[in-house]
Each structure stands twice: as C-alpha cells, then as structure tokens.
Amino acid sequence: MEIGGRRLKNVETMAVGSVTQSGPPPRSNKTYLENPKIPIAVALLIADAVFVFLIIAFVPYTKIDWDAYMSQVKGFLEGERDYRNLKGDTGPLVYPAGFLYIYSAFLYLTGGQVYPAQILFGVLYIINLVIVLLIYVKTDVLPWWALCLLSLSKRVHSIFVLRLFNDCVAMTLLHAALLLLMHRRWNLGLIVFSGAVSVKMNVLLYAPPLLLLMLKAMDIGGVLLALAGAALVQILLGLPFLVSHPFAYISGAFNLGRVFIHFWSVNFKFIPEPVFVSKGFAIFLLAAHLITLASFAHYRWCKHEGGLLKFLHSRYVFMRMRFALFFSSAFKKFEKSISSSIKILTKEHIVTTMFVGNFIGIVCARSLHYQFYSWYFHSLPYLLWKTRYPTLVRLILFMGVELCWNIYPSNNISSSLLLCLHLIILWGLWSAPPEHPYVEKEPPSHKDK
C-alpha cells in the first residue's frame, strides 16, 4: 500500500475530521461562578429537600415492592445463588446482580424498616436532583425560572420516597454517568453506566446514543477499552451467580422478552389486550424504535459529519489505516497528527443525544408502568426547550405529560393523550435545528478520553 503525504492527509481528514455545515456556537465569557442559575439551583434544592421530608412525615407510605426487595435480598445474604429461588411477594427476581448489592446495603442501613428507608431515599432524591441541576446548569439550555419544573412532579416524588423503587437508584447512577461523560471522563463514565445497568436494564435505552458519542469522541481502541471496562463490571457483579447457576442468572436478570401486564400500562392502555401482548405488536414497536434511532442518528446527530453512513465509513477507514501503519515508521507521525486533530464534543451535544435517544425508547416502549416515569422525567424540560415550540406550548406539554402520569388507573383517554404528547415532543425534537457538536478550540487536557 502506497502511503504518501497527500494520501495520509486525505485519510486523516475523512477519518477524524468531518466537514461541518454550520459554524460553532459563540463561546460565553461568563465563568461558572458568575452563572445566575447557581443561586436559583441552590434555593430549589433547599426548598425541595424541605418538601421531600414533609412528604415523608405526613404522607402515608404505599406498600408495593419494598418487602419483595427485602425478601430477595435476604435470600441472597443467606447464601442462595440460584436466581430462580430468589423470590418475593411480587415474584422472582428479575434485576441484575448490582440490585442485590445495593439493596443489601439498604437492608443493613435500615434494618428493612420502611421509615428509615424513606429517609435514605429522600437523600437519594436530593443527590439525584443535585446531579441533574449540574447537568442543566452546565448545558445552559433552560431559562433560570424553568429549573423549577424539575421539582414539580407529584409522581416522581412519590416514586422516590413513597414507593422506594430501584428505578430511583438506576437513574441516579445514570445521571452521574452522564455528568462524567460531559467532562470527557469516558472510561469512568462507562463504568458508572454499567453500574446503573446492573440495577435495572432500562438504562440500556441510552446505549445506542452513547455508543455513537464514543465513536465520535475516541478512537476505536478507546471505545473497545471503555466497553471492556463496562463488561468487566457486569462480570464481576454477576460472578457468584455466573459460577454457580449461569443460565438461571442470565435468563432471569437479562430477560429482554418479558411481557408486562396490560392493566398497568400507562402509555398503551387503549390498545386491546390481545394485541398488546402479541408478538406482532412487539416487533412493530421494535422496528419503530430502530428506524427512529437510525433516522435521528443519520439526519440529526451526525448531520455535521455528512450523515451516519459517512461517519461510520470514516471510522472504518481510520481503523484500517491505523492497523496498516501500525508496523510502519509513519505510525508515530500518523498518531501525532490524529491526536492533534481530534475534536471534542460539546456538553450540549452529549446531553441532547443521550436524552433524545432515551426518549425515543420511551415513545416506543410496549408498556410504561408508573415508576417508569422516573426514566425520563428529569430530561423532559431539557427536551422541551430543545424544540422550537413557544414557551406556552412547552409548559402545556409538560403539564399534560405530568397529568397523564397522575391518573390512576390509566384509561383509554389518558394513555392515548400521553402517546400524542410524546409524539408531539418527538416531532419538535426532529424539526429543531441540531446544535454544533464540536468545541471549536480547547487547550490540551490529560483527562480520560
């Protein structure tokens, strides 16, 4: 293979740098401490903390899954390693092993009692809100007053401190992982992301956009190393079960074919139950999910790289070139040139891609139970302000979604309305102009890439 200076330059341009179709956003001269949203966020945290502990003190706890969690954890602590035998009031354990370790710690801290567990989850709620506010402040998408929307959900407060669902733990870890990704700590972010998956698998809805961002931000070797770290977390956490009863663990903890009960569906209650539980409906939703993801990836997230196919081809060419030059004297020059020309993703592009990718999964989910609202509520204001809808329309959409999630039990009208609201938001995201994905210039950093 003949490698000349011009050939090398062309490959570098195609493999690493993509031609952007619009200029980068103007950089703000305002420092982080001068951001006027900081005092608003602090005041919001204090007010919400008071509100959370008033809920714990005066609103009756609703028994749903806590006792079942404790039964499953006690079986694990007593030495049971067969997932088929770890059961509770609601049935067999269906979560990966990380759930057991975390709720074992909760059992140790609370003695299995509800009231101290509520206090613990109240603290978890505030920690999650701190992380979410940091994400919002650092992306600067919402106006200062709209941050208050993050504390206005009756259902989310209930999910955390009156229901004690493991969704709360999983989403707190996910938001922590996202904050790390925003600071380009990709390897550590993937480890925390894997930890979130080990608590509940809904976090995998973020996996496709995360993989795309990794391919943009790192070379192939970095991507594989980060994925290996995430896989290692799953192996280490599941090791006691993988060694003793591997099939029972994998089939129980990672069952992607579960069919949820039609009665509890918040989003597709208007679908007749025979259709709801049918394989054809599941395949239709899966196809819609994949097509929508691919469309957003091609026309929105990779627009500045010339589309998804061109971007993936550029990464493939880069991988081939790196392999071809590995034993060549030009390898060091090639690596140095690549390192100097690698582009850094903006925080806003990372958050937008992750939140929109998850929301697509929410729209196409066959069944959303009430606790699943925590999967995307904290991204909802961000998503609404990424659309070009007027502020009044954004607020109506926000209130409409919240209303649908607070109707119990769900009915044909509420579930139909929720789906329509989701589709309106999705259309707003599709029709909005994509932000510039790359930082224009930034000094070299020794951070984890």
Automatic annotation (TrEMBL):
<keyword id="KW-0812">Transmembrane</keyword>
<feature type="transmembrane region" description="Helical">
    <location>
        <begin position="117"/>
        <end position="137"/>
    </location>
</feature>
<feature type="transmembrane region" description="Helical">
    <location>
        <begin position="188"/>
        <end position="208"/>
    </location>
</feature>
<keyword id="KW-1133">Transmembrane helix</keyword>
<keyword id="KW-0472">Membrane</keyword>
<feature type="transmembrane region" description="Helical">
    <location>
        <begin position="93"/>
        <end position="111"/>
    </location>
</feature>
<feature type="transmembrane region" description="Helical">
    <location>
        <begin position="38"/>
        <end position="61"/>
    </location>
</feature>
<feature type="transmembrane region" description="Helical">
    <location>
        <begin position="220"/>
        <end position="241"/>
    </location>
</feature>
<feature type="transmembrane region" description="Helical">
    <location>
        <begin position="247"/>
        <end position="268"/>
    </location>
</feature>
<feature type="transmembrane region" description="Helical">
    <location>
        <begin position="158"/>
        <end position="182"/>
    </location>
</feature>
<feature type="transmembrane region" description="Helical">
    <location>
        <begin position="351"/>
        <end position="369"/>
    </location>
</feature>
<dbReference type="InterPro" id="IPR007873">
    <property type="entry name" value="Glycosyltransferase_ALG3"/>
</dbReference>
<dbReference type="Pfam" id="PF05208">
    <property type="entry name" value="ALG3"/>
</dbReference>
<feature type="transmembrane region" description="Helical">
    <location>
        <begin position="415"/>
        <end position="432"/>
    </location>
</feature>
<keyword id="KW-0808">Transferase</keyword>
<comment type="pathway">
    <text>Protein modification; protein glycosylation.</text>
</comment>
<dbReference type="GO" id="GO:0005789">
    <property type="term" value="C:endoplasmic reticulum membrane"/>
</dbReference>
<feature type="transmembrane region" description="Helical">
    <location>
        <begin position="280"/>
        <end position="301"/>
    </location>
</feature>
<protein>
    <recommendedName>
        <fullName>dolichyl-P-Man:Man5GlcNAc2-PP-dolichol alpha-1,3-mannosyltransferase</fullName>
        <ecNumber>2.4.1.258</ecNumber>
    </recommendedName>
</protein>
<keyword id="KW-0328">Glycosyltransferase</keyword>
<feature type="transmembrane region" description="Helical">
    <location>
        <begin position="389"/>
        <end position="408"/>
    </location>
</feature>
<keyword id="KW-0256">Endoplasmic reticulum</keyword>
<dbReference type="GO" id="GO:0052925">
    <property type="term" value="F:dol-P-Man:Man(5)GlcNAc(2)-PP-Dol alpha-1,3-mannosyltransferase activity"/>
</dbReference>
